[in-house]
Amino acid sequence: MRLFKRMILATVIATGLEVVTPTIVPGFDGGKYILKVSAETLPEASISLTEKQQQTLQNFPQHNVEDIPDLNSMNPDQRQVFMEIIRQTAVNMDLPSAADTEDAFNVLKNIFNSSSDLYLNLTGATTELIDDINENHESPFDSITGEQVLAANHGLIATSILGATFDVVISALVTKGITGGLAALVKKEGINVVKQKLKKELGNKLVSLGLKGLKGLLFTAVDVALSLASPGTSIAKYIDAHDKIKNNGWIELW
C-alpha cells in the first residue's frame, strides 16, 4: 500500500499537479540538552490542572513503588484527573491530525488499564498506534505513515511512547499536577530532592515495564529532564541517544 502511495504521488508530481500533503513529523534527535539546571531556568509545565484536580492527586492510589498506576484501582474522581493527564500528554505528542491524537490518547490510556492487552505493553502500544496512524492517512495523496510519525517499526518501542508514559507518571506521581510542574517543585523542595524522586519513581516503573536494563541511562537522563517542559519525553530521547543504535526513534536494550 505504501509503495502504491509513493507511485501515485510521483505520478501526480510528474504531471505538474499541485498536491498539498500534510507535513511528516521527523524522528527525534535526542541528547542535545543542557545538563546544568536550576529552578530559575526550568520551563513551565506542559500539563495544566485545576486546584481541585491537583488536590485529587494528593491521595493517589499506589500500593508499591514498582506499581504503574492502574485506572481500575482509582475512584471516579481520580480516574477523571488521570484521564485528563493522559489526554494532555497525547496532545503534547504533537501528532499530525486530531484523529492521530485521539488514537494516541486511547493507546496511552490502555497502557495504564490492567483490563487491556496493552497494559504495561509499550511494544504493543507502539504497534497499535502505528497501525492507527496508517489508517488515518490511507489516502494515496497523504504521505504520512505511522512508522514515520513515531520513527519506529512494528515490534519495537517508540521513543515517543516511552516518553509519553514517563510524562503521565511524572505528572501523576511526582509533581502531582502542581502549577508550574517540575519548576515549581524544584523551588519548593530543591533540585536534588526532585532528582531523587524522579529516579525512584521512574527507575522502579522501568522494572514493571520490563525495561530494567535502561535504569543506568535513566539516572543520567534525569538531569536532562529537568531542563525541559516534558521531562518524560526528554528522558526517553536521552535514552534513545545513548542506546545501541543512537537517535533512531526507538529503544534498543541490547
Describe this structure in words.
The chain is mainly alpha-helical and 254 residues long. It has one domain. 54% of the residues lie in helices and 2% in strands. The chain is built from 11 helices and 2 strands. The protein has a two-stranded antiparallel sheet. Helix 10 crosses helix 11. The longest helix is centred in the C-terminal third of the chain and has 18 residues. The N terminus is likely disordered.
Radius of gyration from the alpha-carbon trace, in angstroms: 19 Å
Sheet with most strands: 2 strands, antiparallel
**Strand residues, percent:** under 5%
Number of separate structural domains? 1
Helix content: 40-55%
DSSP, total strands: 2
Q: What strand line-up does the widest sheet have?
A: 1-2
* Straight-line distance between termini: 32 Å
Average pLDDT score: 74
Please state the overall shape, judged from the principal axes of the Cα atoms: globular
Sequence of secondary-structure elements: HHHHHHEHHHHHE
Number of helices: 11
Identify low-pLDDT runs.
1-45
Give me the secondary-structure category: mainly alpha
